Each structure stands twice: as C-alpha cells, then as structure tokens.
Amino acid sequence: MDGFQQLYGDEVVTLPSWPAWVAVVRGLAPHARAAFAGEENLHAFTSDIAALKAVYDSLVAEAAEHGLAWR
Question: Which of 57, 58, 31 lies closest to 46 in space, CA to CA?
Fold first, then answer.
C-alpha cells in the first residue's frame, strides 16, 4: 500500500477502490507471510486471491479514468 502511494502519489488513495484494496491486502497479508514461512498453503485462499485481483483491476481502471499513469 505504501509502495502504491510512493509510485502514484496521494491521489491513489482517493480512488473509490482504495478502501477495498487496503482491506483485502490486510486480510491476505498474514496468510502470505505464513505461506512464505512454510506454515500455510495459499491455495486455501484462492477466493481471497481472486478478490485481490478484482480489486487491483478496479484500481487500474479507476487510475486510468483519473489520468494516473499505472506502471
């Protein structure tokens, strides 16, 4: 999340999907951390990963609508 703000400035946090992005990243982060530690299998969280992708796609579309050059 901080990286997005560094890349795109504070305008990114005004996008309508930003709160959903924060929520889905925070919800998935502990599981990702555990998976990298070999303690959890991310395949158990495919619906959460799909939600992350859907929200990311929304952010990309909203960024384009607001003239943000998405990298």
Answer: 31
Sequence-separated (6 or more) residues with CB below 8 Å from residue 68: 8, 11, 12
Residue-wise pLDDT tens digits, 10-24: 889 999 999 999 999
Euclidean distance between CA atoms 4 and 59, whole angstroms: 11
DSSP state of 40: S
The 10s digit of each residue's pLDDT in 37-65 is 999 999 999 999 999 999 999 999 999 99
For residue 5, CA distances in Å to 14, 35, 43, 68 come to: 11, 26, 29, 12
- CA torsion sign for 61, 64, 65, 68 is positive
